[in-house]
Amino acid sequence: MGIPEDPLERRKWMVKLWREDYGERFSVFDPDDQPAPELESWQPGMWEPYDPKADKDGNYDTKIIRHLKWFEETKRFLKARYEIAIGPDLFFDCKAMHCQGRFSEEIAPEKERPWYIRALRLGIFLFDGKLGIGFSCRSLSCQRKQCALNLKNRNRLNRVDIYQLLQIFEGEKALPFAQAVTVVSKEFDSPLHGFGQPYYAVPKEAAYRQLKLYNRKIPSLIKNFSNLCRRSRLVYFDLKPPTDKPFRDHFFFPAAMVTEGTLEKINSPVVVTYVYLWMLRIEQLRQNRFEFELPTPAEMEKDTESRGFKISRRSIQRHIAVLEAAKVSFIFSDPIS
Questions:
Q1: Is residue 15 part of a domain?
Q2: CA–CA separation, 271 vs 38, rounded Å?
Q3: Total domains in the fold of the chain
Q4: What is the pLDDT of residues 137-187, one digit of tens each?
């Protein structure tokens, strides 16, 4: 059969050829277990030509490891680090129990162990509109509900990349993102960069709840808001926060705000205004407004009232003056500090 003349039929033919070649001849995809991407996403230019550019220091963006050329290297890396043998069906055991320990001593090991058997799957997924190597979970019994891949997690990701997979295995605190990048960079012999600054992704409803409950109880607000951040997922970016579905209803607060005790240093009702200004900042960044535009006190008074924790315009003016004098606010420094 020759190449179809009709553009739609030609695309279908390309997908069929891709599945047959890589699924049977090269054992990358099993046609029955690895569905082809949507036709709309099948664009060879999404990963070819493969010509990444290094920065001035000779480092490459971390996302290059998602490229299809690293498929076999990814399997070799997982086998060397975790003794994972990935067969033609691309299913393999999750190592969370092996790396992090048992989920609970109250659950018998023989009941927990099946959670992880052939639970994960290696495949090709969409990342930020581009196809790349990723991993997903299919375990129906696993109770690690805080895991980013867990089917019972309402904010579940349907794919993660190699860095996130390492964090799922070993724990986000035990293996921070920057360290995961270092591990992959060393093993893949490819200098990487570009993972950005760490931020806590806090659900909007949870952030609003804290400000509504404790806006007049500052010690409680500082304690509870900091704990909320620590329980939230860490994400990394330099200019613009993530906008994909799992993070659409989130605010992003810099990890340094918690780890360096910024709220404790303020230790006054100014904390409420400071957190609110970060909310505004993230909303503007999502609109590609990278230089922060401060609304008028009257506008902010009305806006905070609509969000459920009204701050008077006089208080806002006073709080901003305090933040400026203490030099703890991003408003008076570089755009993303």
A1: no
A2: 47
A3: 2
A4: 999 999 998 898 999 888 888 889 999 999 999 988 788 888 888 889 888
Instruction: With respect to residue 11, please indicate whether it lies within any of the assigned structural domains.
Output: no
Please tell me the distance from the alpha carbon of residue 277 to that of residue 329, in angstroms, as a whole number.
9
Domain-ending residue, one of 193, 220, 241: 193
List phi, psi (to 5°) of 334: -65, 160
Residues in contact with 166: Cβ distance below 8 Å, sequence separation at least 6, in sequence order: 175, 180, 183, 184
269 lies in a domain?
yes
Cα dihedral angle (106, 110, 112, 118), rounded to 10 degrees?
Answer: 170
What six digits make up the tokens of 318?
A: 């006073």
Do residues 136 and 268 share a domain? Answer: no
State the average pLDDT over residues 267-295. Answer: 91
Q: Two tokens at 274?
A: 């400071």
Question: pLDDT by residue (tens digit) across 113-134?
Answer: 999 999 999 988 877 667 788 9
Give me the pLDDT at residue 24, please: 40
Read off the tokens for 72: 């076999």
- Calpha distance 178→180 (Å, rounded): 5
pTM for the model stands at 0.50
At residue 242, the pLDDT reads: 79
Rounded Cα–Cα distance for residues 241 and 285 (Å):
7
Domain coverage including residue 212? 197-332
Q: Which of 94-108, 167-181, 205-219 has the highest mean pLDDT?
A: 205-219
Same domain, 293 and 210: yes
Cβ–Cβ < 8 Å for 122, 74: yes
Q: Which of 193, 227, 247 is the last residue of a domain?
A: 193
- Percent helix, strand, coil in the chain, to 5, is 45, 10, 40
State whether 144 and 212 are in the same domain: no
Q: Domain check: are 152 and 207 in the same one?
A: no
